[in-house]
Amino acid sequence: MSTAETPKRKPNDFKSDLKPIWCPGCGDFGVLASLYRAFAQLDVDPARTVIVSGIGCSSRLPGFVSTYGVHTLHGRALPVAMGVKLANPELTVVAVGGDGDGFAIGAGHFPHAARRNVDITYLVMDNEIYGLTKGQVSPTSLTEQKAPSTPWGNLETPLNTLAFAIASGAGFVARGASFNTKALTELIVQAMEHPGFSYIDALSPCVMFNNTQDEWKELVTDVAPDHDIADKVGAFDLALKGGFTLGILYKELRPTLDEKYRHLVERTPDSDIDAMLDAFSARKGVAIGKPLA
Ligand SMILES: Cc1ncc(C[n+]2csc(CCOP(=O)(O)OP(=O)(O)O)c2C)c(N)n1
Ligand code: SF4
């Protein structure tokens, strides 16, 4: 937070010394610009903010931001981000990555992050392919899509990540686009302000291996102003509708896992972990954390 001596930060203040090495025109630039603006709007403290990513072109993002960053393993952004937040709930934690990282190798973590409701934001740069490894199909690729891994067309059905998020219990589900940075900035701000797990599918075309930019610009529509974001069935309808609906589809407030842990510790008098381990060891006749005799 800024003080009278430290004026509010501007988007450029969140740039690190490292220049993005993405291909010119890559959608990830628009997502990064939106994130800088959202951080400036929320006046986040870089020293108390952590961006966690997996592996992929999009997962390089933490290196380009002047906050703390953890470039983890392929598909593992969410468990690391949840661990960071649970270990220090005072931190602002944003997980980022691609559709391949999040919904292929990392897919097993997604429903649990959503249902546990740890207070983190998950921003997926969705280009419907694996960019870093040169354009193979991902779980969000279209059926019949031709790619180096599917020269005769993709035989699989794409995963609807928004419906997956709603069904898994995510309390904030939205879609934005890298080519609409104003709206994406606003979505990131709202997602970060949401107390609990928030998910944004950010359409972010890969101009090198799946250049959908012009096509997607034609397909996007905004969520209707009268859409009730508390209506889960209505949110599913929007998620399952063809095309790309941009905006907040669903929002629900419920206690976060971080809060529940805090309350559990407060109301459990015998919450001394060493005492608990000693009691457990005594019952089992084993020495936990102590060298075996
Ligand atoms: C365990 C493991 N398996 C596979 C890979 C190879 N790999 C690196 S990035 C990637 C997919 C990247 O796609 P996506 O997450 O959609 O990100 P993008 O590059 O499109 O931004 C894969 C399969 C890896 N690095 N580690
Ligand atoms: S390969 Fe695609 S996703 Fe990767 S930097 Fe280039 S345009 Fe972006």
What can you see in these coordinates?
The structure is a single chain. The relative contact order is 0.13. The chain has a single domain, classed as Thiamin diphosphate (ThDP)-binding fold, Pyr/PP domains (Rossmann fold). A hairpin with a 5-residue loop joins β5 (129-130) and β6 (136-137). The mean pLDDT is 94. By secondary structure, it is an alpha/beta fold. 34% of the residues lie in helices and 17% in strands. The strands form two sheets. Strands 2-1-3-4-8-7-10-9 form an eight-stranded mixed beta sheet, with helices on both faces. A two-stranded antiparallel sheet has the order 5-6. The chain is built from ten helices and ten strands. Iron/sulfur cluster binds next to loops.
Radius of gyration over C-alpha positions, nearest whole angstrom: 21 Å
Number of strands: 10
Question: In percent, how helical is the residue content?
Answer: 25-40%
CATH topology (fold) name: Rossmann fold
Q: Walk across the major sheet and give the strand order.
A: 2-1-3-4-8-7-10-9
Sequence of secondary-structure elements: HEEHEHHEEEHEHEHEHEHH
Ranges with pLDDT <50 over ≥5 residues? none
The CATH superfamily name is Thiamin diphosphate (ThDP)-binding fold, Pyr/PP domains
- What is the count of DSSP helices, taking H or I runs of 4+ residues? 10
Measured by DSSP, the beta-strand proportion falls in: 15-25%
Name of the CATH class: Alpha Beta
